Amino acid sequence: MPIVINGQKYYRTSEVCNAVGISRATLFRWLKEGLLEMSRRDRRGWRLYSDDDIKRLKKEITQVIET
Fold first, then answer.
1. What's the pTM?
2. How far apart are CA 47 and CA 59, in angstroms?
3. Are 54 and 12 in contact (CB under 8 A)?
4. Topology of 3-62 in CATH?
5. 4, 10, 12, 29: which could join 48 in a potential S-S bond, CB 3.0 to 4.6 Å?
């Protein structure tokens, strides 16, 4: 269930992972590699993700890399 702060919806890590179909480990690895910028946290320091963040993750998942 999203959290609303100042009219903006945010999702917790587990909700984002379920929405895009990746594990927490993958999400945290992508954050560490800089594929997604993380700038929002709640008062406890937990990460919060916007709808735009989820869209970027879905786009990253569907990319095909030519080798």
1. 0.79
2. 20
3. no
4. Multidrug-efflux Transporter Regulator; Chain: A; Domain 2 (1.10.1660)
5. 10
